[in-house]
Write a structure and sequence with these properties.
Its EC number is 2.7.13.3. It holds the Pfam family CHASE. It catalyses: ATP + protein L-histidine = ADP + protein N-phospho-L-histidine. With 648 residues, the protein is an alpha+beta fold. It has 5 domains: 259 residues, 2-Layer Sandwich (Beta-Lactamase), CATH 3.30.450.350; 31 residues; 93 residues, PAS domain (Beta-Lactamase); 72 residues, Helix Hairpins (Orthogonal Bundle), CATH 1.10.287.130; 152 residues, Histidine kinase-like ATPase, C-terminal domain (Heat Shock Protein 90), CATH 3.30.565.10. 47% of the residues lie in helices and 23% in strands. It has 17 helices and 21 strands. The strands form 5 sheets. A 5-stranded antiparallel beta sheet has the order 2-1-5-4-3, with helices on both faces. The chain has a 5-stranded antiparallel beta sheet with strand order 11-10-14-13-12. It has a 5-stranded mixed beta sheet with strand order 16-18-19-21-20, covered by helices on one side. α12 runs antiparallel to α13, α13 runs parallel beside α17 and α15 runs antiparallel to α17. The radius of gyration is 42 Å and the shape is elongated.
């Protein structure tokens, strides 16, 4: 016999209706709760994004303090305290516009230099004796690197940050390079001083050593309690910034959704459980997938926009489809302007001819990597490393990295390598030949001294003394040439007015000791319509070498050995023409005479280093020399030197 009570329970619509009611009520309650979580998560994401943006802007401003103090510390460490501190500081402040003042502090804590002095009358102030400034300075010394003190009350008035980089001389602490960034400058640079009606509030504090905080700025007089907030700090500083949401979290919509859920649950109780279960499950799946898709899209977009490289999408005709923030900044266009461009407009015609875009390889799915010279909107260029690949939908993804600095460093390294190879080669040749040139006169002197010990005749001793004098003169000339070579290598170019007539006369006077100097006719002609400026020391060495060679290599068989010196000066350059009717130089030797220790003939005493020094000096002065010569007919050297007259 069946149980009547069981029959009533199974057939009554109350039980399935109640079950449907409870299920729907649970679902709507869950949806309302999820709605609450989504709203809360969205608000938290908004605060986090705003905090990230403000953090980046603050650190961009404070990094100017790092850049300026690092540059100033480098100058002091390597070259001492600059005499033109104001000019250097002015240049640094033009580059780092958010820095209000630059200071130099000695090892005892006394401020020795300030720029600008106006509104910064702190010269002679000892920060290590000041209760406000001392903690930050001591912390910088302890860290041994860049540190930001503040916000603090500044000695010159107001409040702000003091960015310090310690200076070390011979590995010993010798003071600070400091940059002052006023709080008002920082707030203005990141626009916090004009955001009273913003959806976010801001509160800037200084974190004391005991963990307490002192408020220096608040964008709202009264902040909401329990409001969503995020804090920003910097390990190189002692400041903390709170980003606080001004939104009052709206529970009204969530509550209305809950009430609607109860109402729907009551209505759904009249329907069968089997009809209601399917749409509920479907709705739940759609919500979950939508939420996952939205989160994935936001994360991907955030990664693309914050990338340090330019990221671009183009079609196969090269037309721009999309670009990230860095890509827009890289080419100097606005985003709307950039999206109207074709990639061929972003490279020089010469670059495209030498390195065409490899569309065929891209179409085959291959990744293409190349280095190109790219054009900005203002027609300036930079070097970019371009990586491109075809995506599944036929769109080309391009990633551009600015490698201008890397290219420049590589070029500098190659130049230094070439210079080093040249220096090593010259050094090897110099050591080999110099040892011979120095030892030969000394060996000759020792031999002559030994002979003189045995000689009794005064006439023979006189002959030996003359030979000794020649050896000493040869040694002295060679040592003098070595000194000239060293001076040219290491002394800076010193510009002063040149009087060629005086220099030529002095050179002839200095070369009196050369044999047959008095028997050579020297004709001098100076055409100086414009004043000429250059390095007097180096020009003197040039004249001495060319004139002494003209004297040494004269032709004894000719009745009237002569030297003609003609100088023509204009505003652009000086042309110095030194002509002789001496031995001349054969064709084969004309290309070698500027090599170190090369001598065209053994008939004349010389080290072979003089014209090598001439070539080095001409490189230093950005000049040139040309030669016309015929054996037994004479030689004509034409030297051209740029006029380094100061510009008005």
């Amino acid at each position: 016999m069946r149980n009547p009570l069981k029959k009533i329970k199974l057939s009554s619509p109350v039980i399935p209706g109640l079950l449907v009611f409870l299920i729907i009520l649970s679902i709507t309650t869950f949806v309302a709760y999820q709605r609450y979580l989504i709203l809360k998560s969205s608000e938290e994401d908004g605060v986090s994004r705003q905090a990230t943006r403000i953090d980046r802007e603050i650190k961009n401003v404070l990094n100017q303090g790092f850049s300026s103090t690092q540059s100033l510390a480098f100058l002091v460490e390597n070259y001492g305290v600059p005499q033109d501190f104001s000019n250097i500081s002015q240049l640094l402040l033009k580059t780092n516009t958010s820095v209000d003042a630059l200071e130099l502090v000695d090892s005892s804590g006394v401020i020795t230099h300030v720029y600008p002095i106006e509104e910064n009358e702190v010269l002679g102030f000892n920060i290590l004796m000041d209760s406000v400034g001392k903690p930050g300075a001591v912390r910088t010394i302890e860290k041994g690197e860049y540190y930001i003190a503040g916000p603090i009350n500044l000695k010159q008035g107001g409040s702000g940050f003091v960015c310090r980089t310690p200076i070390y001389t011979n590995n010993e602490f010798s003071g600070f390079a400091a940059a002052v960034i006023k709080l008002s400058t920082l707030l203005s640079a990141i626009s916090l001083d004009s955001l009273e009606q913003s959806q976010y509030s801001y509160q800037l504090s200084k974190v004391n050593p005991d963990g307490s905080e002192k408020i220096f700025f608040s964008s709202q007089k009264k902040l909401q309690e329990n409001a969503l907030n995020r804090s920003i700090t910097d390990y190189n500083g002692e400041w903390k910034l709170y980003v606080i949401s001004n939104k009052s979290f709206a529970l009204g919509g969530v509550l209305a959704l809950g009430i609607l859920g109860v109402f729907l649950s009551i209505l759904a109780g009249f329907y069968t459980n089997s009809i209601l279960e399917r749409p509920i499950k479907l709705k739940k799946m759609v919500e979950d997938k939508t939420l996952l898709l939205r989160e994935s899209e936001q994360k991907f977009k955030s990664l693309i926009e914050q990338a340090s490289d330019g990221i671009f999408l183009t079609d196969f005709n090269g037309n721009m489809i999309d670009a990230n923030i860095r890509g827009v900044e890289m080419f100097g266009y606005s985003k709307s302007e950039l999206l109207k461009q074709n990639i061929k407009n972003l490279a020089t015609n010469e670059e495209l001819e030498n390195l065409p875009i490899r569309f065929q390889e891209l179409n085959l799915g291959q990744s293409v990597l190349s280095e190109r010279q790219l054009l900005r909107k203002d027609k300036s260029s930079f070097y970019g490393e371009v990586s491109a690949k075809k995506l599944n939908d036929g769109v080309i993804l391009g990633i551009v990295r600015d490698i201008s600095e890397r290219k420049e460093e590589r070029k500098k390294l190659e130049n230094k390598n070439r210079e080093l190879k040249k220096t090593n080669s010259e050094l090897d040749s110099f050591v080999y030949s110099a040892s011979h040139e120095l030892r030969a006169p000394l060996t000759s002197l020792l031999g002559l001294v030994d002979i003189m010990k045995k000689e009794e005749s005064e006439s023979e001793k006189l002959v030996n003394l003359n030979m000794m004098e020649n050896s000493i003169t040869r040694l002295d000339d060679f040592i003098g040439e070595i000194i000239q070579y060293s001076q040219n290598k290491h002394l800076d170019v010193k510009i002063e007015k040149i009087n060629f007539s005086t220099l030529i006369d002095r050179s002839l006077e200095d070369l009196w000791y050369l044999k047959n100097t008095s028997g050579i006719n020297v004709v001098k002609e100076i055409n100086n319509k414009e004043p000429f400026f250059s390095d007097k020391r180096r020009v003197t060495v040039l004249l001495n070498n060319f004139i002494s060679n003209a004297i040494k290599y004269h032709d004894l068989e000719k009745r009237s050995p002569s030297i003609w010196i003609n100088v023509i000066i204009n505003s652009k350059e000086a042309s110095i023409i030194i002509k002789d009717n001496g031995m001349g130089i054969d064709k084969e030797s004309q290309t070698k005479i500027y090599n170190m220790f090369y001598r065209a003939t053994a008939k004349v005493m010389g080290s072979g280093i003089g014209l090598f020094i001439v070539q080095e000096i001409l490189e230093k002065l950005r000049g040139s020399v040309s030669l016309e010569s015929e054996l037994n007919m004479g030689s004509t050297f034409t030297i051209k030197l740029p006029n380094m007259a100061p510009k008005n």
